[in-house]
Design a protein that fits this description.
The structure holds two protein chains of two kinds.
Chain A (H helix, E strand, L loop, with lengths): L4 H7 L5 H17 L4 E3 L2 E4 L6 H7 L3 H10 L13 E4 L9 H4 L3 H16 L2 E2 L20 E2 L2 H9 L10 H10 L1 E3 L13 E9 L2 H15 L4 E7 L4 H14 L17 H5 L6 E5 L1 H11 L9 E4 L6 H11 L9 E5 L2 H10 L1 H7 L3 E3 L4 H4 L8 E4 L2 H11 L2 E4 L2 H10 L8
Helix pairs in contact in A: 1-2, 2-8, 4-8, 7-10, 9-10, 9-12, 10-17, 13-15
Chain B lengths: L1 E2 L10 E5 L1 E4 L2 E8 L4 E2 L4 E2 L4 E2 L15 E4 L2 E2 L4 H10 L6 E4 L4 H10 L3 E3 L5 H4 L5 E5 L4 E5 L8
The chains are: A alpha/beta, B alpha/beta.
C-alpha cells in the first residue's frame, strides 16, 4: 500500500507507539482488502466501551491494555494519547443509570464508568447510541467517515451521502488515533451506484412495512446496492432508520438509493450511474408475507417483555409510545423497556414523556439495548418488538422467541400481556 | 487447477487451487464448509466457536480449529470483534477461505491471526466439502484439498 510521509512516520514509531500500532493494523487491514492507499477521516464512530465480562480480565490490567488489544489488535500494551479525529462512542452494553433494571452486576457497571472516564479524557464523545445521527453527528455529503454499527453505516451512506464502509472495533480504534482509514469500497465514488432494481409492488408507508421491506431485501440482495422503485411513500428519518437496520441484519446492505429522496439519486438513471441492472427484485404481497413469517418465530401469545427502540428511538417515537400509554397500566406479567439516546432522554424527561411511560409501568432506557447487553427481564421467554433487527438477533443470541409488529401492536401487548398483532 | 488423479469418472482425491493471500501463514486441518454467509456478532458464540444464527446451515456446529470455508461475512459491524474474541478464547478457526471480500471479513480475518485466502481460481465452496483435509498456504497463495474417501476422513 502507498503511504504518505506522514503515514510512514506514524508507522515507524516517530509519533509514538500507539500510532505505530494503529498504522500497523491499518496497513494489514488495507492489504487484506487490496486497498491502494489510506484516506483522511475526521469522523469516527466506534466501540470503545468495556462493558462485558470477557473484557474484565483485560480491564484489570488497565484501559491502555483494553484499547491496545481490542481497539488496535496489539498484544503490546501502548499508552493511548488523545484522539486526532472527532470520535464518538456508539451503543454500549450497560445503562449507566438503570443497570440494576437490566440485571447487570455492580462491578461491571463500575467498569464501564471507569472506562468512560478514560476514553472521555482522550476525546471520545460518549453519545452511547447506535444512532449518532440523531444526536448531532450528521456528516455531510461526500465526507469520509469511519463508522461501525451496520444500521448507522447504511444510514450514513444512503440517507446522508457521506462515505463509510462497515468498520469494526479495531479499525475505528486505529482511525481515531491516526485520522486514516483504507480508501476502499464505499469511499470510492464509482462503487456507490445501484446494482439491483427493486420493484415495490405494495404500498410501503408505515414503519413496520419499511422494516419488512428491508428485512426481505437484505436476505435476497445480501450486500449489493438496491435501488427502490414503485410504491414507496415519502419516508422520514425514522422509517429509513428501520429500513436500513433491517436490511443490514438479514443481509449486508450498506447502501441503497431511493430516487428523488436520497442524495446520490435524483433519478433512477443517476442511481445506477450507467451500471447494468444485475437483477430486478419484485416485492409484492407474497414477499411481504415471507418477511413477516421469517421474523415472527414465536407461537406462544403470552408476551413477557416488550422492547421498543432498536435502533434507538427518536424523541417523536418516545412521544408516540408515551401517548399510547397515557392513563393505562401495563400487564403485571409483562415488562416494557423503551430505548432512546441519553441526550434525547433529557428531552423526554423535560417534556414529561418519561413520567408518562413510568406511570404506566414501563422503563425508559439509554446507552444500550437487549441484543447488545444480552440482558432482558429475568425469565423472558417471549419478546415483542417493533424492530426487525431486534426480532432477528434476540432469538439467536438469547434463545427467546419473538413477535414483530407495529409500535401499536407492541404497546397493546404490553398492556394486555398477549400478542394480538398480525399482518393487515 | 491440477489434481493427481483426475479421470472422467473418478473424483479427484487431491485438488490444488491458487488464490490471493488475505492474511499470511500456513495451516491445515479438517474443513467445515457452508453456502450461507456468517454473522459475527449475533451469529457466533465466541466461547465455543459455534454458529448460533437461526435458520443457518451450520447452526450448532463449531469451526474451532477447523478450516472454515464460507461465502463471506454479513450482519453487524461487531464481526471482527467476535472473531477477535474467539481467538482470545482459543475458539477461532485454524484458517479461512471465502469468496466475497468485504471490510467485515478483511478486518475479521486480520484480527483472527489465522491464514486466510480469497479469489480462488475455482469456487472453493463447490470443491471443498465438510470433512475434507485442507491445507491453506496463504504465503504462497495455494490451497490444497484432500478429499475424504467414501464419506470417511482421508
Amino acid at each position: 500500500m502507498k503511504l504518505t510521509d506522514h503515514e510512514k512516520s506514524m508507522l515507524d514509531g516517530a509519533q509514538g507507539r500507539a500510532k505505530a500500532r494503529a498504522m500497523d493494523l491499518l496497513v494489514r487491514y488495507g492489504e487484506a482488502l487490496g486497498a491502494e492507499r489510506l484516506v483522511e477521516t475526521n469522523n469516527v464512530a466506534g466501540a470503545f466501551n468495556a462493558s462485558t465480562p470477557s473484557v474484565s480480565e483485560l480491564a484489570r490490567k488497565g484501559f491502555d491494555a483494553v484499547y491496545s488489544e481490542l481497539n488496535l489488535d496489539s498484544s503490546e500494551v501502548v499508552e493511548v494519547p488523545r484522539m486526532v479525529a472527532n470520535t464518538c462512542q456508539l451503543i454500549t452494553g450497560i445503562d449507566n443509570e438503570q443497570w440494576r433494571v437490566q440485571g447487570i452486576p455492580w462491578d461491571l457497571a463500575e467498569q464501564q464508568k471507569r472506562g468512560e472516564q478514560y476514553f472521555g479524557s482522550r476525546g471520545i464523545n460518549m453519545f452511547a447510541t447506535c444512532t449518532p445521527y440523531q444526536v448531532g453527528n450528521v456528516p455531510v455529503k461526500g465526507e469520509h467517515c469511519a463508522w461501525m454499527e451496520s444500521s448507522a453505516v447504511v444510514y450514513c451512506n444512503s440517507v446522508l451521502g457521506a462515505r463509510t464502509n462497515t468498520e469494526g472495533k479495531e479499525s475505528t480504534g486505529a482511525a481515531a488515533l491516526t485520522g486514516r482509514i483504507p480508501y476502499w469500497g464505499y469511499h470510492i465514488a464509482g462503487n456507490r451506484h445501484g446494482s439491483h432494481l427493486v420493484d415495490v409492488a405494495v404500498d410501503v408507508d408505515d414503519i413496520m412495512d419499511w422494516g419488512l421491506l428491508g428485512y426481505y431485501l437484505g436476505e435476497v440482495i445480501d450486500d449489493e446496492i438496491p435501488v427502490l422503485s414503485g410504491r414507496c411513500h415519502q419516508p422520514s428519518l425514522i422509517k429509513l432508520k428501520h429500513f436500513g437496520a433491517a436490511a443490514a441484519s438479514s443481509g449486508g446492505v450498506e447502501m441503497y438509493h431511493l430516487p428523488g429522496v436520497t442524495p446520490e439519486a435524483r433519478s433512477l438513471e443517476e442511481a445506477f450511474g450507467g451500471n447494468p441492472v444485475k437483477a430486478t427484485v419484485r416485492y409484492g404481497e407474497a414477499e411481504r408475507r415471507i418477511a413477516y413469517e421469517n421474523l415472527n418465530c414465536a407461537t406462544d401469545r403470552g408476551v413477557d417483555f416488550v422492547m421498543l427502540g432498536c435502533p434507538h428511538n427518536s424523541i417523536d417515537q418516545v412521544w408516540l409510545i408515551a401517548s399510547l400509554l397515557e392513563g393505562r397500566k401495563i400487564s403485571a406479567d409483562t415488562q416494557l423497556w423503551v430505548h432512546t439516546p441519553r441526550a434525547l432522554r433529557e428531552v423526554a424527561d423535560r417534556n414529561g414523556y418519561t413520567r408518562m411511560i413510568i406511570e404506566a409501568g414501563g422503563f425508559v432506557m439509554s446507552d444500550t439495548c437487549p441484543a447488545i447487553s444480552r440482558h432482558m427481564p429475568k425469565g423472558t421467554r417471549v419478546v415483542a418488538t417493533d424492530s426487525a433487527k431486534q426480532a432477528h438477533y434476540l432469538p439467536a443470541i438469547t434463545g427467546v422467541s419473538a413477535w414483530f409488529g407495529s409500535v401499536r401492536d407492541c404497546v397493546e401487548a404490553a398492556i394486555t400481556g398477549r400478542w394480538s398483532g398480525g399482518l393487515q | 487447477m491440477s489434481g493427481d488423479t483426475i479421470g472422467p469418472s473418478v473424483a479427484p482425491t487431491r485438488i490444488v487451487l491458487r488464490g490471493r493471500k488475505v492474511v499470511g501463514g500456513c495451516a491445515e486441518g479438517e474443513a467445515i464448509v457452508t453456502r450461507d454467509t456468517i454473522s459475527g456478532w449475533g451469529g457466533i458464540n465466541e466461547r465455543e466457536g459455534t454458529v448460533i444464527e437461526r435458520r443457518h446451515e451450520l447452526r450448532g456446529q463449531s469451526f474451532k480449529d477447523k478450516i472454515l470455508g464460507f461465502p463471506g461475512a454479513k450482519g453487524s459491524s461487531g464481526w471482527s470483534a467476535y472473531f477477535h474474541m474467539a481467538r482470545l478464547n482459543g475458539a477461532a478457526p485454524r484458517a479461512m477461505i471465502f469468496n466475497k471480500m468485504t471490510t467485515k471479513i478483511a478486518l475479521g480475518a486480520v484480527v483472527t491471526h489465522a491464514p486466510a485466502m480469497t479469489e480462488l481460481e475455482q469456487d472453493p465452496l463447490t470443491l471443498i466439502e465438510t470433512g475434507d483435509w485442507v491445507k491453506v498456504d496463504a504465503d504462497n497463495g495455494v490451497v490444497e484439498i484432500t478429499k475424504r474417501r467414501n464419506g470417511r476422513p482421508p
